[in-house]
Amino acid sequence: MTVSNEETWDVVVVGAGVAGASLAARLGRDGRSVLVLERDLREPDRIIGELLQPGGYQKLQDLGLESCVEGIDAQEVHGYCIFRDGEQCVIPYPEAYVAEKDGYEHVAGRSFHHGRFIMKLREAAAAVPNVELRQGTANKLLAEDGNEWVDHETKPQRVIGVCYTDAQGKKCTARADLSIVCDGMYSKFRKNLSKPEIDHPSYFVGLILENCKLPEPNHGHVILADPSPVLFYPISSTETRVLVDIAGNRIPSTQTGDMAKYMKESVAPQIPESLRQPFLDAVEKGGFRSMRNTILPGKPLHCPGALLLGDAFNMRHPLTGGGMTVALSDISTLADMLRPLPDFSDLEASSRTTKAFYHKIRPIAATINTLANALYRVFCGGSGNKAHDEMREACFYYLKQGGVYSEGPISLLSGLNPQPVVLVLHFFLVAFFGVKRVVSHYGLAGLWLGSQVIACATAIIYPIIKSEGLLHFMRACASAPRPSHPKKDL
């Protein structure tokens, strides 16, 4: 299609990442005309967004996009293996949360090169007749009076489209009844469409191990190192991704050799022996990649004619790999809610739907976000806080018990059962398990330390729940169906 100075579409999507491309494909299949604007259509190269949890893969299936993990050497992921001081526990994904009637054969996530997955999603979107994927940089949201839309308070008008610059440098306008912004973690429109409260707790430093045999094949591996965790997971049949978390606002320099020194002296001694030499080989080879980790609770502003989705709207610590699950869940929910509308020109009907959408997605997103951020806080050690150290030990040994002690937490992490009440229940069961451990070790003298463990758990999870929206979280807990024990015969 030839680009003109002004065009009209049902929907304009800004950004063709996981959220934008999958949303465009689904809306196009529902009969909507969709223009997708992406600043750079080349294959992206990132070190996160490489592990899709089983719940996220099920959402991909619901969207009819499961073929996007085919032909990219994606690997099935069947659970996690956690290491702590020479001990390990293997936690499989719970098959019991999958019903055959829903068309899911078994529980498995997928891990892959992020860029390959994105290119497959874009291909799927572009293959839909009603969808056009176009290289262009969105410059501003357009208000009804033809001027730039900044925010609803400054300009109480609906958003009617996007002004952008195409690949040839031409200024263009795409009008639409609904403009959906999915322009990623560095979004230029985030402040217009939400109230962002951003925190950067750490960095991930990434390496690739070649032809490395993991202790538990097709599992994610978490090493509870000091001061923060290290992750290993396959991204192809021959490559394993390593992500070393480094807390704080600065990381050692790669140019001076400080990064390699840190990896060799501080990290490598804590890596399991079977992985230590491949890790050191990768360090020696170099090629360090870093990514600043971001926590961003979703706090939308209701803006008629516009929505904010994906990493532009909501992020959590990537420790648990929940980002794509949240994004795909949001996309599936939004598409289902928009489907009954004949079009989006009825401002009252579309605004009512988009406003309801933000309320409907809160329980799932808040659960996955809270889990990720709380687990990260628990798994970080080296603080010198005895109660915190006991909490981390309690978490490891609680999960190591297996059965319902691991099935509940892994059902949350996998995105298969993102119930707020299950999260709160198991988080404090871990804390009380920690109290039991210290009392059994120290006797009655351990009661004071036990009370500090409970206080530590509360100090970790309460601020996270509060940032996600305490009232909404409590309502979700109150209205959630009582979790039943998973059926063993599924």
Provide an overview of this structure.
The protein is of the alpha/beta class and 490 residues long. Helices cover 39% and strands 21% of the residues. It is built from 13 helices and 17 strands. The protein has helices spanning 18-29, 54-62, 114-126, 190-193, 258-267, 273-285, 323-338, 347-360, 362-379, 386-400, 404-413, 420-442, 446-479; strands spanning 6-14, 34-38, 51-52, 75-77, 79-84, 87-92, 109-111, 131-143, 148-149, 159-166, 171-181, 202-210, 220-223, 230-234, 239-247, 289-292, 306-308. A 7-stranded mixed beta sheet has the order 6-5-13-14-15-12-16, with helices on both faces. The chain has a 5-stranded mixed barrel with strand order 1-2-8-10-11. The chain is globular. The termini are far apart. Residues 481-490 have low confidence and may be disordered.
Outline the fold blueprint.
Blueprint: E1 6-14, H1 18-29, E2 34-38, E3 51-52, H2 54-62, E4 75-77, E5 79-84, E6 87-92, E7 109-111, H3 114-126, E8 131-143, E9 148-149, E10 159-166, E11 171-181, H4 190-193, E12 202-210, E13 220-223, E14 230-234, E15 239-247, H5 258-267, H6 273-285, E16 289-292, E17 306-308, H7 323-338, H8 347-360, H9 362-379, H10 386-400, H11 404-413, H12 420-442, H13 446-479
Parallel strand pairs: 1-2, 1-11, 2-8, 5-13, 11-17
Antiparallel strand pairs: 3-7, 4-7, 5-6, 8-9, 8-10, 10-11, 12-15, 12-16, 13-14, 14-15
The helix tally amounts to 13
Q: What percent of the residues sit in helical stretches (DSSP H or I)?
A: 25-40%
Spatial sequence of strands, sheet with the most strands? 6-5-13-14-15-12-16
Quickly give the structural class.
alpha/beta
Rg from alpha-carbon coordinates: 23 Å
Shape: globular
Strand content: 15-25%
Number of strands: 17
Q: What's the end-to-end separation, in Å?
A: 49 Å
| Low-pLDDT sequence parts | 481-490
N-to-C SSE string, H for helix and E for strand: EHEEHEEEEHEEEEHEEEEHHEEHHHHHHH
> Which oligomeric state applies?
single chain
